[in-house]
Amino acid sequence: MATSSSVDRSATLQLALACDLAEVRPAALMVRRFLSAQNCAERDLMDCELALVEACNNAVQYAAENTRDLPVVVQVVCGAREIEMRVTDHTPGFEWPERAPLPDAQHERGRGLYLIQTLMDEAQFTRQGAENLLTLRRRRREPGAAVR
Amino acid sequence: MKLEIQGDTLRISDVKELGAAVAPAFRDSARAALSDEQRNIEVDLSQTTFVDSAGLGALIALHKTARSRQGAVRLLDPQPQVRQLLELTRMHHLFEIATR
After folding, report:
1. Are the beta carbons of A102 and B90 separated by less than 8 Å?
2. pLDDT digits (tens, 9 = 90+) for B3-43
3. What domains does chain B contain, in order, with CATH numbers?
4. Where are the domains of chain A?
C-alpha cells in the first residue's frame, strides 16, 4: 500500500510492507523513485536507499514471531532542505548505540547500524508502546554532488 | 546468476542485486558450484545495481571459503553505489577489486 501527498512544499510517501525480506527492495525502489521525483541529488538517492534497506531488513529480521503479521511502516517526508524517513517496526527493540562500530573485516554481520549512522546526518530510535520508531534525517545535497 | 568454472576459478556473473532476500542463496549456490580444483572466486559486479550489508556478508563468506583453499575473491567492475559500500565498510582492503 502506498500513499503520497504534497503539503507546504514537503512531499510525503507512506508505505506499509509485509514483514518479509522480499518486500524491502521493492519498497526502497519506490522511495528512490519518489525522492528522484523531488529532484534529490543522486548521492541522496543512493544513501537514502541503502540506509532504508538496512533499517527495514532489521525491522523484518528481528520481528518477534507473534508480530510477523503486522506491517513495517515507512514514511518519507522530502522537504526543500531535508529528507526524513521514519520506519515503524514491531521488534522487541534494543539499546540504540551512540556510534555503532564497524565490525572486524571477517565478520559476516553487524554492519547495518554502522551504515545507517554513516549515511544519515541524524538517526533516532524510540520505543513507543509495542512499536519502535526509527527516524532518519539527512540534509539534501546539491544536485551533482560527488557520490563520495 | 551465472556460474562458470575456468580452471582454478569460479566465475560468477549476471548478479542483478545482492540484498538480504537473496544473499544466502547466492552464497550457497556459489559454494555448491565449487569442486576441489577451484580456489579462487571472481564475482563480476558490473551488472549489480545494489548490495546491502547482508550481500556484503555473503561476499565475506565466500572470501573465507576461498581463503580456506589458499585462494582469493576478486570483485570486477563494481558500480559506484557498490564501490561506495565497499569503501565505507573498508572491504576494499579485504577484496581485490579490478576494473576491466
Report:
1. yes
2. 999 999 999 999 999 999 999 999 999 999 999 999 999 99
3. 2-98 (3.30.750.24)
4. 2-139
Q: Which three cell numbers stand for residue A6?
A: 504534497
**pLDDT in the model for residue A143:** 78
CA-nearest residue to A58 within chain B is: B20
**Residues in chain B closer than 8 A to A111 (CB atoms):** 53, 56-57, 89
What pLDDT does residue A8 have? Answer: 57
- The pTM score is 0.93
| Alpha carbon distance A105, B98 (integer Å) | 19
Interchain pair B85, A50: CB under 8 A: yes
Complex ipTM, two decimals?
0.94
A7 close contact with B: CB closer than 8 A: no
Q: Which residues of B touch A112 (CB under 8 A)?
A: 52-53
Domain A2-139 has CATH 3.30.565.10: yes
| Strands annotated E in A8-111 | 10-17, 72-78, 82-89
Q: What angle do CA B12, B63, A117 make, to 5 degrees?
A: 100
